[in-house]
């Protein structure tokens, strides 16, 4: 599949999620890179987690 964006893309999360849903591995990687810091921060606030625990939670959430 030809990718209409690169690592500096300004594509929306929705566009990346749609491309990922259509099997685009590059979109999946970009979406993961973009969202992991937010998920990790949320895990830290929600669970009062240490950084290591928050990283584990974020990794598990992104895999699912």
Describe this structure in words.
This protein is mainly α and 64 residues long. 70% of the residues lie in helices and 0% in strands. The chain has three helices and no strands. The chain has helices at residues 13-21, 25-47, 51-63. The longest helix has 23 residues, at 25-47. The two termini are 24 Å apart.
Short summary:
By secondary structure, the protein is mainly alpha-helical. It is built from 3 helices and no strands. The mean pLDDT is 84.
Strand content: under 5%
Anisotropy-based shape = elongated
- N-C termini distance: 24 Å
Summarize the biggest pleated sheet. none
Fraction of helical residues: over 70%
Low-confidence stretches: none
Helix-strand makeup class: mainly alpha
H/I helix tally: 3
- Average pLDDT, to the nearest integer? 84
Reading the helices and strands in chain order gives HHH
Number of strands: 0
Cα radius of gyration in angstroms: 13 Å
List keywords for this structure.
70% helix, mainly alpha, 64 residues, 3 helices
What is the topological layout?
Blueprint: H1 13-21, H2 25-47, H3 51-63
């Amino acid at each position: 599949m030809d990718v209409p964006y690169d690592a500096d893309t300004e594509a929306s999360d929705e566009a990346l999620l749609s491309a990922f849903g259509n099997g685009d591995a590059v979109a999946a990687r970009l979406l993961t890179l973009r969202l992991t810091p937010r998920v990790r921060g949320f895990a830290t606030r929600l669970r009062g987690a240490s950084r290591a625990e928050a990283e584990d939670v974020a990794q598990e959430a992104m895999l699912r």
